[in-house]
Design a protein that fits this description.
This protein has 226 residues and is an alpha+beta fold. It contains 9 helices and 5 strands; from the N terminus they run αααααααββαβαββ. The protein has a 5-stranded mixed β-sheet with strand order 2-1-3-4-5, sandwiched between helices.
Length: 226
């Protein structure tokens, strides 16, 4: 049976320290221990929290964790894994902007939305816009950063975020630092692979935009998405 946080020595209790000194005084593992509440066998909740953070290396990676991945850490069962994911999601929703979502319904709008952040990059960046059923932007994610003339393009990395965000559609975009947005043979091949993979998870690939210098190439406009 695990140790309750309240059974730990008084000066080690995260809850007591939060009450006395405020939430900012707690380390990340102490905040996580409050959510966990209990440890396991000879480990306290703080020990389990430290191990969990060590296994995931950073909060960014913990942010992307699944229930199964969390349960691979000793002391994290299904119930605790669900509670951690719920706490992370609550934090995300609190930080969501209250302004109206951006609507994108054409290649031109996609380009206008992306050009300022992409057209001057010195390396190829693969960026995705994840949309809901109303074509509103749920999130913008940088999937990978490559070299001056190449980027890592893995359909699995793109669709993983689509599933996590419950997106209905995805706009894929990458830049050509050369300034010429014409697609390479590889650009065409990986787009075909992505289209095939997206059908398996029922997420529509709306467009693939290549951002150049003050111009763009749209696979949708050139009928390359069939």
């Amino acid at each position: 049976m695990g140790f309750l946080v309240k059974e730990m020595p008084l000066d080690e209790q995260p809850r007591k320290r939060l009450q006395k000194y405020g939430v900012k005084s707690l380390a990340t593992h102490e905040l996580l221990a409050i959510i966990l509440r209990t440890g396991c066998h000879n480990q306290s909740a703080i020990d389990v929290a430290k191990t969990l953070l060590y296994n995931f290396e950073s909060l960014d990676r913990l942010n992307e964790a699944t229930i199964t991945e969390l349960m691979q850490t000793k002391g994290i069962g299904e119930a605790k894994a669900i509670e951690i994911i719920a706490a992370i999601e609550l934090g995300k929703r609190i930080n969501e902007p209250t302004s109206p979502k951006i609507l994108i319904s054409s290649p031109q709008q996609s380009y206008q939305f992306l050009k300022d952040s992409m057209q001057h990059l010195s390396q190829e960046n693969l960026v995705c816009l994840f949309l809901n059923m109303k074509s509103e932007v749920l999130a913008q994610k940088t999937i990978s950063i490559g070299t001056i003339n190449n980027t890592i393009f893995n359909p699995r990395d793109i669709l993983k975020w689509g599933l996590k965000l419950s997106a209905s559609a995805i706009i894929v975009a990458h830049n050509h630092p050369s300034g010429n947005p014409e697609p390479s043979t590889e650009d065409i091949l990986v787009t075909k692979k992505l289209l095939q993979a997206s059908k398996l998870v029922d997420i529509m690939i709306v467009d693939h935009i290549i951002v150049g210098k003050n111009r763009y190439y749209s696979f949708l406009e050139h009928n390359k998405l069939s």
